[in-house]
Amino acid sequence: TEDDYAFLENCVFVGDSICSGLGHYGIIPMNSVIAQGNIAARNIFDFTFTVDGSDLSLVSALVNANPKYVVFSMGINDVNITSEEEFAEDYRELLSTTEGFLPDAELIVLSISPIGRDSTFTANENIDKFNKALEKMIGENEKWHYADVTAELKNEENALKTNYSSGDGIHLSPDAYYA
Question: What is the pTM of this model?
Fold first, then answer.
């Protein structure tokens, strides 16, 4: 809708390889996506991002973009490495830092997307625990928002719907992003 496009024009999406699919599939312009593989809440400040031909820190990329909305989408790279509590605290640091540099921006965090039933990467029940910890932490700050995308992406087996997998059971198909 027009409202959807108006919202997207004022957004920057930040995250991991799953998030980068938004730009790679052409769902939103690549210049609205600050993402790459292996990004996690625990290590995002260790990376630089190529934006308009320049390598920038996350903070510099966000300040240059000056979006009205920053949508964070990451976590799959954390679920096998940290605890839910550490994950939530790492995300808190990320959101606090972002808020410090973009005090007028709305910060929205998407839940970690589920994985396919046949994936051995982790268990969806594990992802659910991380999402609960994330939602709880975000609920403690009225300026931050949590968006649960899992309800649309999951089937009755608590797994990623088959048509929403890009083929590896972890990354999403274009249909998943539209959903």
Answer: 0.95
Q: Which residues make beta-bridge pairs with 35?
A: 15
Say how far apart CA 45 and CA 137 lie, in whole Å.
20
- State the average pLDDT over residues 116-131: 97
* pLDDT tens track for 99-112: 999 999 999 999 99
Q: How many CB atoms lie within 10 A of CB 38?
A: 11
**SS3 state of residue 145:** strand
- Return the number of other C-beta atoms located less than 10 Å from residue 136's C-beta: 12
The CA–CA distances, whole Å, from 138 to 5, 87, 144 equal 26, 12, 6
- Residue 173 tokens read as 């198909």
> What mean pLDDT value characterizes the chain?
95
- Token couple for 119: 């994936």
